[in-house]
Amino acid sequence: MLTAPNEDHRPLYAAKDIVPFYLEHTPKIFPQQRYFFFCLCI
To answer: How far is the C-alpha of 14 from the C-alpha of 42, rounded, in Å?
Structure first.
């Protein structure tokens, strides 16, 4: 996220935007089904 450039070749996102982004999108990025399957394999 910090290396994605905008039109002015500046970072598209600030460091302060990373945590809210992951808090909002974590369920889509890492579905819970994977964690459940992973836990069963251990």
So the answer is: 37
Query: Is residue 19 a contact partner of residue 2, using CB atoms and an 8 Å limit?
Result: no
- The DSSP secondary structure of 5-24, one letter per residue, reads B-TTSSBSS-GGGHHHHHHH
Boundaries of domain holding 20? 1-42
pTM here? 0.50
The tally of domains found in the chain comes to 1
> Could you list the pLDDT tens digit for every one of the 42 residues in the chain?
888 999 999 999 999 999 999 889 888 888 776 555 555 555
